[in-house]
Write the structure tokens for this entry.
Amino acid sequence: MEMLSDRIKNMAESATLAMAAKAREYKARGINVISLSLGEPDFKTPKHIQQGAKDAIDEEKYFAYPPVNGYLDVRQAISEKFKRENDLEYSADQIVISNGAKQSIANVFQALINEGDEVVVFAPFWVSYSALIELAGGVPVYVNGGIESDFKVTADQLAAAITPKTKALIFSSPCNPTGSVFTKEELLELSEVILGHENLVVIADEIYEHINYTGAHASIGALPGMIDRTVTVNGMAKGFAMTGWRVGYIGAPLWLARACNKVQGQFTSANCGIAQRAAYTALTSDLGPTREMAKEYLRRRDLVKDLLDSIPGFKTNLPQGAFYFFPDISAYFGKSDGETSINNASDLSMFILDHAQVSVVTGEAFGDPSCIRLSYAASEEDLREAIRRIKEALAKLS
């Protein structure tokens, strides 16, 4: 007999994880699936970071419970990183280290949102934003930036979406799923709207900060008047190929950092001590390996852009960061191969999995039903073969 809570029954499953699970099912049946569905760097964690974790184990100092918000020296290193790289002034007491940036965001919503509060979400958006808002009792309010505007929401659109119930705003830059990057000038325009609303908190997800091809990452919290209104979310997963280490963190106004510490103290307590030591090594070392990874992602971006542009009906922007493409594939809606009809992006994603043995993710999960997301965090060989298969499979639709 099932006795699940309404909140769990109503919660959407992560579409990226669901598609990854389907791909694993196909592989278990002996089908050669190329997975382009997860935001998972295909690089190994750099050796010097691995060594930092090994050294911490050998020191035998980090086996007990860490402080809930993280070791002081790691939080100080994050504080210094924020100042050095982002011009953000967060003290160590304003830092909370969590089990991945996903928990960081969940903590913020649990600490901030009352039942019925609205959260403006720039769409397309990372799949978990809406579920985490709803789990906290909030109401996501989606503001769409279309492919014609490089998927970026304007200040006028933001102003029109704010109501007396608006408590927060969340967006990512570089963006998952589109790869779009807000410039400092664009963020300044948004900040002028935000500063006109006294109780509006901004959650800026900067997890892809180091995978940025513009040469200039901009943080909204560094703009005039914004530091006391901004939660900056970041972590080790993407820029340092440390997804499995599960280290995310926030810089936040002190009152909100303390509240997130309180939430985390009841949910999970601290992040793994050894993972934090690895993060400390990464934060206090040269960024050379990270920059080399970013160069390789840029090379793949250009390769994949050319390959996708050769597929009839695909409409793509040129991502300026992260490692995704988010092509508009609506030209295939209404088409069929005689057995399967394509009515939406979910249908096309499953058609690609079934007929090309490539896993991608429907754009519906990211707030744009005209698109699909594919990751180019894969080898050149896999990328070439995957897109060749997709092109061949889609040619069967008419």
